[in-house]
Amino acid sequence: MEKNLHQKEISVKIRKDEPIEVCGLTLYPLTMEHYEEFMNMKNVLSIRLSALPVQYMAYDYLNAIFRMDIDNRINKKDKHDSLFSTVLYLFELALRIAPEQMEKSIKIYLTKDHLIDQISVMQNGKLVFLKSNEFSKKIRPVIASQNCVELPDESANKDLIEAGIQKREFYSQNEPDIVFDVEKMVSSVAYLSHVREKEIYEWTIREFENRKQAIDRDKHYTMYSQAEMSGFVKFKKGNPFPSWCFDKKSDKIGAMSLDEVQKTFGNTTQKS
Known about the structure:
The chain is built from eleven helices and five strands; from the N terminus they run αββααααβββαααααα. It is mainly α and 272 residues long.
């Protein structure tokens, strides 16, 4: 009962974009100031362990990423930036550690088997030690939820996961040729929200993503409803966007494969 109450409190704080204390550390939702770099790096949070090579599946999330990076360096396959360093960078952003303090604020302690035993974190003059599995099971889910990142269901059926990946790849190949531009997207959301662009950059990423989805949902609902009411169009399974305020039930089982993550991650640049 106490555990459920704790999770409920966390959910309320996430909805209110309030900081959350986990394992003695305070995690903050990222703001739009970091949006562009976060969009390039967020997929590392949602890597599915069951999609990794079999030798990493027995590890917790943090050690799996850590060991994979080491093995890639040994085998000279480090064509992409380190996934592990990106996880730490996102962690530092969530802790709101000043850029000049980042290098000395987090230290990694290894076991004799060269796995992560614990992490020491200095936040606001307070020293906290974390076990690797504490980061994987407690810190990672909160950072993801605070910033609108959906973590994969590790218990999902492998065949359904693969089908979900293939389905997404098929649709991505048929997407319109649109140039992704953060500034234009921010301007569009600002215009439709009746606020100035500079105000948007004070929002949290979660607030921006929710607002953008609300705008998209409303426009789809309006367009398809008008088409349906005109009598010239009829949808076999009903309006594909039946509500302006709720999402239709959808298949969320597809997860990013490691190759997809690395392709996206290859374009990542971190601010120093």
